[in-house]
Specification:
Length: 351
């Protein structure tokens, strides 16, 4: 028998030697092999899981995930006839147009909704439904603008259209008083309120936003259409496309106000839209974001559409007398490659 003190394994026994329990017991070398194999399998599984789920934003360059919220058909097609920023507004001398007419004009100038929505898609329409206000206060997205986007998504072949947002005030009151619940439901859309069970803690990999509860309804769709209202904001100075993603967040969002510009840029990096349709039918010029005084609003009868959320905010800010140079989050979005702050360099069409 070998001396156990030398650290070597004992010699192997003949096939029929020893008891059944001895024969079934693996040697130390076999145990080491089995542990190593198991560790390799676990490590491989973890690596696969990381590549699929640890994305730091849908469609991030480091991810192998197939689904990307920001994709739309024809995005890479060069077509100088199509607008990159389409602005639909009331013509001089024209009777006050319906919001639906302006939405259709803007989207058609970009090639139509079928350019963005494929047949069978599950589409989320993300308005601003943050406040317990009526449409005349211009604190939430105009319900007729939301309705037009919902209708056009269905016409393009969407299997299901969901309207959702994470409200600041009581969601039931916000969804009802805004008029959006009734309008969306009447057109066959599913209206989803921000219930607690719909949030999931997610790694966002932002400068400010690292791990945060995310409203899963807004990220689990095939396509996401951002439909904000253009208005004044007392901290951000102006709010529309990029700031509208605050509705994706759960938790104590007011904690982000100390670094509001960075948090907006982080959100816009994480959530990139299929399409942006901005409501400027009636614009809250001051005392935003809640408003409440009709005298603070101005009728503009304008809707504009683009896929560039940075350009959308740089242009939209001009409606309330702001300039892109005064909006740090717009500059951050530009520097991060999320879009261009120089909206004049796009193919801009007024329709």
């Amino acid at each position: 028998m070998a001396d156990k003190s030398d650290g070597r394994d004992p010699p192997a026994s003949p096939p029929n030697a020893g008891s059944a329990s001895d024969r079934s017991r693996p040697s130390r070398r076999e145990l080491i092999k089995r542990v190593g194999l198991s560790a390799g399998v676990l490590a491989g599984s973890a690596l696969i899981g990381k590549s699929l789920w640890d994305q730091g934003g849908f469609g991030a360059s480091t991810s192998s995930a197939a689904r990307q919220v920001r994709d739309y058909r024809g995005r890479d097609r060069v077509d100088t006839e199509l607008a990159q920023l389409a602005i639909a507004k009331q013509k001089e001398g024209e009777p006050e147009p319906a919001a639906e007419q302006l939405v259709r004009r803007a989207i058609e100038a970009m090639g139509g909704m079928k350019r963005f929505i494929s047949r069978g898609d599950v589409v989320v329409v993300k308005p601003n439904i943050g406040w317990d206000r009526m449409p005349i206060h211009a604190a939430n997205t105009n319900p007729d603008v939301v309705g037009a986007v919902v209708q056009m998504a269905f016409e393009a072949g969407a299997k299901k259209v969901v309207v959702a947002d994470g409200s600041c005030n009581d969601p039931n009151r916000c969804f009802q008083r805004s008029g959006i619940w009734r309008k969306a439901y009447s057109l066959g859309a599913e209206v989803v309120l921000p219930a607690e069970h719909r949030f999931r803690t997610t790694r966002m990999k932002g400068e400010i936003l690292d791990e945060w509860p995310i409203f899963t309804t807004l990220v689990d769709a095939d396509k996401v259409i951002n439909v904000p209202v253009a208005k004044h904001h007392n901290l951000a100075k102006y709010t529309a496309a990029m700031k509208n993603w605050y509705g994706v967040l759960g938790g104590r969002r007011n904690r982000l106000h100390q670094n509001i510009d960075v948090s907006i840029a982080d959100l816009a990096t994480f959530m990139r839209p299929t399409l942006v349709v901005v409501d400027a039918m009636r614009v809250l010029m001051r005392n935003g974001p809640q408003g409440g005084n009709i005298d603070d609003t101005k009728v503009m009868n304008t809707v504009f559409a683009t896929v560039d959320q940075v350009a959308a905010d740089a242009y939209g800010a001009t409606l309330i007398g702001q300039h892109r140079d005064n909006l740090p989050y717009v500059k951050m979005g530009h520097e991060r490659g999320l879009g261009t702050m120089y909206w004049e360099q796009l193919r801009v069409k007024e329709v």
